[in-house]
Amino acid sequence: MKTENYPLDYRQPKVIGVCGFGSTGSSAVHDYLLEFENTMEPGRAEFDWAYVPDGLLDLEYHLFHPYARTMDSIIAIKRFMDISETLAAGYSGASGMKREDFLDSVRRLVDSITQASWHWYRLKDHSIWERLKYKYLQKVIMPREKRTKEINNGWPQPLVRFSVCPENFMTVAQQHIREVLCLMGWDEKRDLIVDMAFSSCLPEPSMRFFPNAYAIIVDRDPRDIFIHAHTVLMGRNHWMPFNVKDFCTYYRGLRNSSKREDSERILHVSFCDLVYRYEETTSRIRQFLGYGENSAPNTLFIPELSKANTQEWLRFPQFADDIRHIEQQLPEYLYDFTSCEAPDANAEMFWGRSKTHNFTKR
Fold it and tell me: pTM of the full predicted structure?
């Protein structure tokens, strides 16, 4: 890929989403990219705002598919605002962005796409509290409205927002994302490396919201992921099944939902290739992004350290039966280690970013 073929993409600051499937080695690529002078990061929060359930993609879908007339947009906007309250602390805590600044940006987006609003109550569930509110509405509010001819615009009828196919949605959504990235510290002069900015399975839909977006999808041998879950990741909550049969179903299901095809904007990288075929793989990454030679190699990502996170099953013979099952069920996803030396059995296995630093590059 030559620079002159894509001059605008390469000359304009890029948002590079480094994405994985959970413990697949995306931090290694993240660290490698931070070795370049023209890159920065907004902290290490997983910024999944574009595609998280009830996030931007879900909001867009329901606004433009009004199957239930008014209910689609009313409920989608409410859920969008609710999930923003839930996720704001995580996004702000890891980036330095103020929580209220993020929420203000969300409110501006919602205000921009709202086409109508009024007070309305809908029974959300059958809890005692919700049934009492609905009973109060039926027995007190509605008869009073009928008698006085005055509309109730207060409790228990909250303000609802309606929007169907808003023409400005993509424009304001893109403005919102750019604003949030700047609140996180992006100077819009350097390339921004964002952890999990796009869906690893289907990155294209969420990439539309980001300026000059590029995605690097990182994957890893399922045997190493399984062993990592049973060792290093113990006590870190469980985002994957522990039972080997369920694990194979989980692993294949995620990969089956992904195209796994490279393009001008999307590059797939093997964590093991980055470790064992460092020069070849980093050359692919640099060519993909239009980068020159790395002036500070092995300062943040050190392949020798990351070798400890490969061929992990060799250290734990007690999982031999599980490993054989994975090899039988997921043969096309196994990395060929025949030409790779076994790592030092005493080397420290680790999770997350390189042990060589503990800072955020701004």
Answer: 0.89
